[in-house]
Amino acid sequence: MPEIDGMYYYHHQVENKLQPAVIVLHGLGGDHLSWPVEIRRLPGCEVITPDLPGHGNSRGSGRQSVNGYADGIVEFMDSVGVWRAVLVGHSMGGAIALAIACRHPERTSGLVLISCGARLPVPRQIMDNAINSTTFPAAVRSLQELMNGPGTLPRLAEQTGKRLMALRPSLVLGDLLACDQYDGTDCLSSIKSPTLVISGMEDRLTPPQYSTSLAAHIPGAALQRVDVAGHLLPLEQPKRLAKLLSVFIHSIPDPRGF
CB under 8 Å, gap of 24 or more: what pairs does 105-109 form? Predict the structure, then answer.
């Protein structure tokens, strides 16, 4: 994986540059491996999958705010020479993509918001437990329970719990604060980029009504509901998600946006 300005990223390059570049943003405590290979190597598309600051192999610390992460991704786009891109975000990554579309519309060719909402409130008990090192494991267990849906495979559920528990408590707390304090409701009506909103019907952390509200308030947004998927939709239904992304990306007019 290459590194630039302290940020590691996975780069799937293609010879055909007619499609827009795609930047894929993971959620709370994640990294590029939070996305299955079907998305990181989306056929026919140049896909860039960074580890957010302080996450995975990237250096530094987390930004503790969605807007802070959004500014970091715009700087990252400058560093890798991508002026405009389709921004694909999951959960907190979706909020980051949404913030970029609102604050930097000229940098956004398209927008895909997965398991996301204009607000991402964190249950108070989880926040309180995450603050204290003694009760941090309880916060992780609560997060894991909400991330797992009825159809989540036991192996995936176990892996999610282990990855969360292995994270620095300060990073998890910072991402929780970023989610809890984010509010993008005021800018939804101003978004002009083609937008696709995707929701897992069994999502308990960002329930389907979050996505329904997003799609209703973003002009022209399309909404796709995926059965047998919870909050971990990208890992639970990778082939279905890859197909939805491919159809959407190929539908964007003037793909490179120059």
Answer: 105/190, 105/191, 105/192, 105/193, 107/74, 107/77, 107/83, 108/84, 108/193, 109/20, 109/21, 109/84, 109/85, 109/193, 109/194, 109/252, 109/255, 109/256, 109/257
